[in-house]
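$ fold --in a.seq
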Amino acid sequence: QVDLVESGGGSVQSGESLRLSCTTSERVSYLTGMGWYRQASGKERELVARIGQAGYTEYDASVKGRFAVSRDAAKNTLYLQMNSLKPEDTASYFCYGAWGPGGRSWGEGIPVTVSS
């Protein structure tokens, strides 16, 4: 089991930026993958971005070019830099960490609100 805690959410205006952080109880280098999902009100949870153990990244088409996922092994922290935010980015954002054969742990989520 891996504990994850998100921070950095909040309310911003359209076009502004936010950086989400996700601090883990396990060394990020031990995790087979990490990433961010989001869930808007009344919608299903969707993948936003992820980073593999080797460092490759993958993004949903709706955020590609605006968001960047990264990690700091020394701080056991995953980041999501979100630029040029749009109202449709409004959601609760959840980080996850993948470990072992099929294991996955989730943070509790953090709200992001973008006003037009």
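$ fold --in b.seq
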Amino acid sequence: QVELVESGGGSVQAGGSLRLSCITSGWLSRIYVTGWYRQAPGQQRERVAAISMSGVTNYADSVKGRFTISRDNAKNTVYLQMDKLKRDETDVYYCYHDVVWGRGCPVTVSS
């Protein structure tokens, strides 16, 4: 059974950086990517970035050039480095793999 646990969220000023971590356990299928979504209260969940087991990445247009997704397979961890954060990126960030989701990691960006 796959489990995902996020960490690294918190508060940061606009323009600042945070790095989220998603520690995975269980057997991850090589067919599916692991990635991040985010969701603000009352809003639809938005895909942020994803990475395949081989390291191929994909990003939402809104974060290209500012966010970097990476993985360390030896540590069973997927990272999301977020730079130049904007106020409207205050969301709960969720790690996912196939149909499995973590519990979410709140990020607050203040002015």
